[in-house]
């Protein structure tokens, strides 16, 4: 249920300034989005897994806070990021 090292490195290269830029908020949102998609697929076949559900909700909350931070600082960067990741815009 965790993201592989190779996939994480690929996301860091794609969204970060360099291959060591894992602290960038765009990179963090991309990694969280990947994990959210993986857990969502798990929850489709395991509806009663409440521990995973709680973890999923916590990840979604963390991603939402990071996205609101990005939106406050650079709206154009925010719009590009959600379009690239395929996330709906529901953050006010």
From TrEMBL:
UniProt GO molecular function: rRNA binding; structural constituent of ribosome
Record-linked PROSITE patterns: RIBOSOMAL_S15 (PS00362)
Role, per record: One of the primary rRNA binding proteins, it binds directly to 16S rRNA where it helps nucleate assembly of the platform of the 30S subunit by binding and bridging several RNA helices of the 16S rRNA. Forms an intersubunit bridge (bridge B4) with the 23S rRNA of the 50S subunit in the ribosome.
Gene3D superfamilies noted in UniProt: 6.10.250.3130, S15/NS1, RNA-binding
Native source organism of the sequence: Coriobacterium glomerans (strain ATCC 49209 / DSM 20642 / JCM 10262 / PW2)
Record carries keyword Iron: no
Protein name: Small ribosomal subunit protein uS15
GO CC, one annotated term: cytosolic small ribosomal subunit
One GO BP annotation of this record: translation
Protein keywords: Ribonucleoprotein, Ribosomal protein, RNA-binding, rRNA-binding
Source organism, top-level taxon: Bacteria
Similarity comment text for this entry: Belongs to the universal ribosomal protein uS15 family.
InterPro entries in UniProt: Ribosomal_uS15, Ribosomal_uS15_bac-type, uS15_NS1_RNA-bd_sf
Oligomeric and partner information: Part of the 30S ribosomal subunit. Forms a bridge to the 50S subunit in the 70S ribosome, contacting the 23S rRNA.
């Amino acid at each position: 249920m965790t993201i592989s090292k190779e996939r994480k490195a690929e996301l860091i290269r794609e969204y970060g300034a360099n291959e060591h830029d894992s602290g960038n908020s765009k990179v963090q949102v991309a990694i969280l989005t990947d994990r959210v998609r993986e857990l969502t697929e798990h929850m489709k076949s395991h509806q009663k897994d409440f521990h995973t559900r709680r973890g999923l909700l916590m990840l979604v909350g963390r991603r939402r806070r990071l996205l609101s931070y990005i939106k406050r600082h650079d709206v154009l960067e925010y719009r590009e990021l959600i379009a690239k990741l395929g996330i709906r815009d529901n953050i006010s």
